[in-house]
Amino acid sequence: MRGLSRPVLRAGWCGRLWAPPRRALAASPPSPPAATSGALSPFDRRLKRKQKNWAALQAEPAKCDYLREEVGGRIADRVFDITRTFPLALDVGSGRGYIAQHLTKETVEKLVQVDVAENALKNAVETEIPTVKVVADEEFLPFKENTFDLVVSSLSLHWVNDLPKAFKEIHHVLKPDGVFIGAMFGGDTLYELRCSLQLAELEREGGFSPHVSPFTAVADLGHLLSRAGFNTLTVDTDEIQVNYPGLFEVMEDLQGMGESNCSWNRKPLLHRETMLAAAAIYRGQCLREMYGNSDGSVPATFQIYYMIGWKYHESQAKPAQRGSATVSFGDLAKIEGLISRGKK
Q1: Could you tell me where the DSSP H helices lie in the chain?
Q2: Phi, then psi, of 143 in degrees rounded to 5
Q3: Does this model's pTM top 0.90?
Q4: Methyltransferase type domain: which residues (predicted)?
Q5: Predicted local confidence at residue 210, as pLDDT
Q6: 8 Å CB contact between 235 and 14
Q7: Which residues contact 299 (CB under 8 A, 6 or more apart)?
């Protein structure tokens, strides 16, 4: 686990990217089908767009970007680990360009940034890489098949209603031997906030409602990527802990990140007494000092899933056929014993 402290177009090459009319993009992102509360459509995508647009228009939008910049840098590190140059890359859910600011034009020659929030794209961080900005939904990428050499995504896909479809869209637009590198929030994200709110509601109101959105389990990610067509998969997890003065500062920064809850079954209003009780629980003034730090601050844990998947190409290494092994696992102990005797 790592910690953070809360801190105070080029037109010449974009014509080749667009898909046929079946994927045509309107002036604004396509409206999702009418959704109701339920497992198939857990999120209000229109509300999420409004939240991200609001966050991007704040006087100091970068004030709450510390987590996104940190994860964007770690995505860029994974791109640098691949010793090749990517002529054309796509950033899905780019926001204000949290990955692009860490990349170089020697690694990525051209970049397309896609986000559902137009204000985030308008206020994107300057980068040395030539970019095109496109307003589109992550579930409906308006690009031709086999277009991009690299697709990246940082802290965006946990808000899509149909994650398997989003992975298939990414696989569709990747070239053979292209790679997808992404990051999304995991299931243990903000467990301190979730538990404090639930305990406070149980005490003050006799029941509780979800205030933190549902997240994908890490055990499901590999299966979903494989179903979408990716191979040579890598999935790993990390945790980033940020220390805040209190619960209200946690919620303020989440709003500034555009990460407020947009679940259809969210509770629209929390009573003042419940919020004060949750803040006390969070700080550790009751219930045996559950989460509070010795300096009076409170931690917020963000679990991050990182994933890497490749689109198949015949040049890629292939696994050996089943049953073709010449040494069994049972022989490994014998080999280790021979090596030990040889050292003696």
Answers
A1: 45-56, 66-80, 118-122, 163-173, 191-205, 218-227, 247-256, 272-283, 330-343
A2: -130, 160
A3: no
A4: 90-181
A5: 55
A6: no
A7: 192, 241, 242, 243, 244, 291, 293
Measure CA of the first residue to CA of the last residue in the chain; give whole Å. 41
- Token pair listed for 77: 């590190």
Q: CA–CA separation, 156 vs 148, rounded Å? A: 19
- CATH ID of 2-187+214-248+301-343, from 3.40.50.300, 3.30.470.20, 3.30.160.390, 3.40.50.150: 3.40.50.150
Q: What is the pLDDT of residue 27?
A: 38
**Residue 214: both structure tokens together:** 């549902």
CA 80 to chain CA centroid, Å, is 19
CA distances (Å), origin 260, targets 11, 175, 242, 250: 35, 35, 17, 11
Neighbour order of strands in the sheet with 230-244:
2-5, 230-244, 298-311, 174-185, 148-154, 86-92, 108-115, 131-135
- What lies within 8 Å, CB to CB, of 73 at 6+ separation is 102
Residue 315 phi, psi dihedral angles, 5° rounding: -80, -15
Ranges of residues in the chain with a pLDDT under 70 are: 1-40, 206-215, 264-270, 285-293, 315, 317-321, 327, 329-330, 332-344
Give the DSSP H/E element, type plus range, for residue 308.
strand 298-311
Report pLDDT for 314. Answer: 73
Q: What is the pLDDT of residue 101?
A: 94
* DSSP 8-state class, residue 98: T
Amino acid at 322: R
Instruction: Name residue, tokens 């301190």.
Output: 192
Three-state SS at 37:
coil
> Do 18 and 112 contact (CB within 8 A), yes or no?
no
DSSP 200-225: HHHHHHSS----S-----HHHHHHHH
Cα 281 to Cα 63: distance, rounded to the nearest angstrom: 27
SS3 (DSSP) at 21: helix
Both structure tokens of 138:
């992550």
